[in-house]
Amino acid sequence: MSARTIGVVMNGVTGRMGHRQHLVRSVLAINSAGGVALAGGGRVLLKPVLVGRNEAKLRELAAAHDIDDWTTDLGAALADPANEIYFDAQVTSARVGAVVQAIEAGKHVYAEKPTAESLEDAITVTKVARAAGVKNGVVQDKLFLPGLRKLRRLVEGGFFGEILSVRGEFGYWVFEGDWQDAQRPSWNYRAADGGGIVLDMFPHWHYVMENLFGTVEAVTARAVTHVPRRWDEAGEPYEATADDAAYGIFELSGGIVAQINSSWATRVFRDELVEFQVDGTEGSAVAGLRRCRVQHRSMTPKPVWNPDLPATEPFRGQWQEVPDNAEFDNGFKVQWEMFIRHVVEDAPFPYDFAAGARGVQLAEAGLLSSAEGRRVELTPIDFGTEA
Ligand SMILES: NC(=O)c1ccc[n+]([C@@H]2O[C@H](COP(=O)([O-])OP(=O)(O)OC[C@H]3O[C@@H](n4cnc5c(N)ncnc54)[C@H](O)[C@@H]3O)[C@@H](O)[C@H]2O)c1
């Protein structure tokens, strides 16, 4: 079968996510595997066109990966009709302007989360995409992680009975940048530059909850800045104005309560950097990025509270590993393949800009809850048009 080639304008590829996950592990990996296989037969290869602000960095990146096309002129890249898709992994604050420019140039658009810094902008960009009739998608990579795919399998297989609650623990220590380099970019810690853990992580938690457990109906959150002073990439000290930890309670449809801690100021005493415990009437599960373990009600021990004696039961040993039963490819790559099929053969793709806006809505509601010290309800977003 023949392979056709689609040009993909990739903006922000010198960054952490754009480079590793989207360029190398998704787009280039798809091409190495022979392209995206279409349901109707045939394959699609991707021709990346790298866009950025820094000519030297782009040239070096393009050379390292044997890529011919790169430019600092976004408009020129968008003007080429061979480039059918625009992808954005820039800093969040730069996203909306570039995405709207791409839509106006008639491109299908795929973007990192969050789709915008504010709900208003996230709604606008959704409306603009819908009005132009272009395909649109937002990265929701966590859904494609092996651990969460196993969790989803358990939900869909009815393992839990009635789901009662979800507890999520996410985080690790992000170094301040003085005596050891920080492992995240400094803009993450400046509110004016689109930073903050709520804006970064609540969109993730939103699509995880929405896709696995139910609609998010209300949030009560406390966002704080635990580490007020950090050092940037140039070794200069700066004031950390954005939240670096958030403690959230989310009320979901069906009466499920989810409680998720997110922190860049905690040290890991877990098996993975994120873990979700789901408790249901019939069983419980603990899922991380890769692993998922379960305990059925028939296998549930009966601990008795007695602080006078050391723990007698090996609690962690009382869980069973959920088998893979499938091959799990890189989650970013899997979602890229879905988006390409969505563009080329109109395959379903539920992770659109409207879903992205719902994630931003939760982030905004979480920040409001924290600022005003109250529970905030989420109402369905009015996009003004049907999907
Ligand atoms: N899906 C995920 O798991 C995940 C994880 C981390 C970050 N992200 C998202 O990806 C996006 C990029 O995050 P990152 O961690 O790769 O950031 P990064 O700082 O490593 O990269 C940012 C990119 O944007 C470019 N850029 C454009 N305008 C800029 C400006 N004014 N200032 C600084 N850089 C500018 C940079 O050149 C660089 O290519 C963010 O929107 C973030 O929310 C997603």
UniProtKB/TrEMBL annotation:
Pfam families registered for this protein in UniProt: GFO_IDH_MocA, GFO_IDH_MocA_C3
The keyword Oxidoreductase is assigned to this record: yes
Residue ranges annotated for the GFO/IDH/MocA-like oxidoreductase domain, each copy included: 149-285
Residue stretches making up the Gfo/Idh/MocA-like oxidoreductase N-terminal domain: 50-135
Organism superkingdom: Bacteria
Keywords: Oxidoreductase
Gene Ontology MF, one: oxidoreductase activity
PANTHER family (alphabetical): CONSERVED EXPRESSED OXIDOREDUCTASE (EUROFUNG) (PTHR43708), CONSERVED EXPRESSED OXIDOREDUCTASE (EUROFUNG)-RELATED (PTHR43708:SF5)
The family this protein is said to belong to: Belongs to the Gfo/Idh/MocA family.
Protein name: Gfo/Idh/MocA family oxidoreductase
